[in-house]
Design goal:
- This protein is an alpha+beta fold.
- 25% of the residues lie in helices and 27% in strands.
- The protein has 3 helices and 4 strands; from the N terminus they run ββαβααβ.
- Strands 3-2-1-4 form a 4-stranded antiparallel sheet.
- A hairpin with a 4-residue loop joins strand 1 and strand 2.
């Protein structure tokens, strides 16, 4: 399952299940500290994904296990 991620100005990673939820200003479905969360730290991101996340962009990526209730 793919999710949409964005990192805010203090380093918190926010995840949405659908891009439309982000665009409609819905609250994130999950958030985490990107500097300390082990699943996030082990996530293999491409150089492009990393750069876009660091720029504050919304990026589509494979769910690293935060939404285990969906397939």
């Amino acid at each position: 399952m793919n999710v949409w991620a964005r990192i805010n100005h203090v380093g918190w990673v926010h995840l949405w299940r659908q891009r439309e939820d982000f665009e409609a200003a819905e609250p994130s479905a999950h958030f985490l500290n990107g500097r300390t969360d082990p699943r996030w730290l082990e996530l293999a991101l491409s150089a492009e994904q990393k750069a876009r996340l660091e720029a504050g962009d919304l990026v589509e990526l494979e769910d690293p296990g935060y939404f285990t209730d969906e397939t």
